[in-house]
Predict the structure.
Amino acid sequence: MEGKLKVASILDTHSIAISTKNYNGKLSEGNVVKIVGKRVKIKNPDDGEIIGIHTLYKDTLEITEIHPNYVVAKKYEKEQLAFPIMSKKTLGELNTSTSPDLPNFNINVGDEVELV
C-alpha cells in the first residue's frame, strides 16, 4: 500500500513542507497538489445508498523543491496580463491557522495531500 502525503510543516505564508517518507509515487517540481479539507459521502435520497464521495479541498499548491523525505510546495496565483494568452504567477497567501477569515478550513500539520 502506498503511503499518504501529508503536510509536515508550514514554512511561511506561501509554502509548506509535505512528508514523502512513506510515499512510493513519483513527484517532480511543477506537480500540482491539493490539500484535502473534507470528504463528503453523497447518498441517494431514496434509499440512502452511498453513490459517491466528494472531496473538498483547502488549497492548491505547486511543488517547487524535492528533498529526500519531503517536498516543498508553494501557493501561486495566476495573474492575467493585458495580452490574452499571457499570464504570470505570483505567490499567494495560504489558509493557515493564522488566517482569521477561514477558521474552519485552515491548512494544518497532518492534513492529507493529493497529487493532481
Remarks:
- Residues 5-115 form a domain with the Thrombin, subunit H fold (CATH 2.40.10.410).
